[in-house]
Structure formats: C-alpha cells, structure tokens
Prior knowledge:
Strands 1-3-4-5-6-7-8-9-10-12-13-14-15-16-17-18 form a 16-stranded antiparallel β-barrel. About 10% of the residues lie in helices and about 55% in strands. The protein contains 3 helices and 18 strands.
Amino acid sequence: MKKLLLALALSAGFAASSQAQSSVTVYGILDAGYNNFTTDTTDSSGAKTSVGIQSTGKTNNYTTSRLGFRGTEDLGKGLRAGFNIELGMAQNDQANANSASGSNTAQTTSVDSNYGNTYSPFVLRLANVSVGGGFGTITLGRQTTAVESAWGAGDVGGANNFVGRAYTFAPTVGASATGYSAAKQNNDRSDRLITYTTPTMSGFAATVQYGQGTNEAYTTANKQSEMGASLSYTAGPAQVVLGYVAEELTLSGAPITNGKPTQMVLGANYDFKVAKVFVSASQGSNKTLAGVKNNERDIYELGVSVPVGALVFNASALTGTYTPVDGATKGNATGMQLGALYNLSKRTMAYGVYGQDKISGLTASSANQQVSRNNFGVGLRHMF
C-alpha cells in the first residue's frame, strides 16, 4: 500500500512538473537576394564622388536573417516566466572564412551596443529573461529599446533595411575624422536593460527602461547609461506610440564629444482596410562636451500600404532638416521608398524595393554639401 501511495505521489509530481515546463518556440528568417547601393557626395569644393556596392544574398536585404528561441513557463498564482534568445545571421563570406580559420576579430570597442563581432556569422541580437503577471512584465537583459516601438508604429516599411525612410535615414556628411552622421540617435537593441511594461488598460500601455553597459577595451572602459520610455494606445484599426530615449556615454569615466544622444519619435497608423496609412515625426540630436547640439535632425514621414490580393504595394516619403554642426545652416532632408511585396504563402514573400534619400544645402566647410543615396533590391524571404 505504501509503495502504491508513493507511486501515485511521484506520478502526480511528474504531472505537475510537466505542466510547468517551458513552452519553447524556435523561429527565424532567411532572406537572400540581389542588392545595389550607390552613394553620391559633393564636397565644399564642388568635387563629386560616387561609390557603388552590389551584393548577392549577403547583407542589406529586406529583413535581417536571424535564428531565435523563446519560451514561457507557468509559475502559478497568475505568474509566468519567459526568455528570448535571438542571433542575427550575417550571410557574409568574410565572416564565414574568419570563423572557420579561428581569426574572428575582438568585440568592437564602440559603446553603441547595436554591434557585436562584425566578422562573426552570428551576432547576438536578443538575450533576456522576464517575469510577468497582473502587475505587468519585468524584462532583464539585452532587448529592444522602447523607442523602437514608436518607429515601428509609423514605418510602412516594417523596419526593412533599404534607404528612403526616416528609420534608415543615415547619410554621412562629414570627413572620417569629423564623423557627422544623420542616423537616428538611438540603439535598436541595448545590453543590460531593465524594462517594466504595464498591463494594457483601455487600450493604453506604458514602458520604462533603464540600463548601464560597460565595454572593456584594453586599458580603457566605455560606459553607457540609458533611460527610455514609451506610451502606446491601440483601439481597433488605430495605433499611436510615443517613444523617447536619452543616453550618456563616457570613456574612462570622462564625458566624450557627442556623448549625449537623445531621440523622440511619434508614430501612428490606421487601417482603412483598402489601405493602411502610416505617419511619423521624429527629432534626434547629440551633444558636444560643451553641451551644444550636433547631428540634429527633424524628420516627418507619410506612408501608405495597399493590398491587392497576395500583392502589397508600399510607398513612403519623408521631408525635414539636418544640421551636422550647431549653428550651421540647416540642410534639407528628403527621401522616398517604393516596395512591391508578393506573399507566396503566409511564410514566404518575394519583394522588390527601390529607395532614395538626400541631404542638400549644407554650408559647413568640414561637411559634404550634398549626399544622395540610391538603393534597389529584389529577393525572397522565408519565415519559420
């Protein structure tokens, strides 16, 4: 009888244990195609330079290829735990060659944590754990920044890698020693973040983030502290998200030039069924040691997505200003992108995209007076 009771107790324990096991999902994206990228610059002397890059199935496709694992566990009493690990796949000949020969370069010394080992075929995108319940969700580790949700809400291109949209607007207008870049002033993802997200109440949800990262490079240390937040509202066909982030970067404990980037984004979309409209307004800048603004950009964008059966047409246009140096004449920022996406199935999509953007009207002698970029690509994406 005792043996029977023991067996029953053990089987009940095993059943409870099996119910509490994590539900794990393996997912990913493979995207390959042909891509052509051209940059034309005109410097202060009037000299023009054109650089073209062509690639086949390596980088800058519609979506970054990736492999991920995520899962949840029921902790009981209304609590749940979760995890997410995601690796980006570089699809790069040099990366594979270096990896095979064991000659991978060291982790980049940049405090911008978007980037890892640039010669590795795999780059860590996400690595986090979470616990949630009726109080909301707390997430710790490498994760997407809160302001990215605002970019996503207002981006008809779905954060694709082609130029022509506010999200990818990043011409470099300075000499290499100056480094003026019109890129957005926030990380896509950051390390060591602590994030709290509220439950959704009457369509509203809020997220707050804080994190610090340290990157040791020989005898120096780059440190990054970051605070971010977002507020979203979703109701039926409408979505609106406001996001903000402020960072402070130091080197060996001392402030650095352009070490205080900030980014604010308001993104929204509305689904009219026959078409979905996207709008965004964004403002970003950086600060010198003296506290004056550099790399200041204000960009407004309008986009529309029109489904025609399995075919989807996307179009967007942006306008705004960009000032590389505080007090200089504002340059004009313009851009557009056209895309045709054909859904062969729920998981497989063929695409063709053309995009262009330009900064013109700059007068600072240390910067290019005009930079224009053109990007065209076709490819096939499979999600699993």
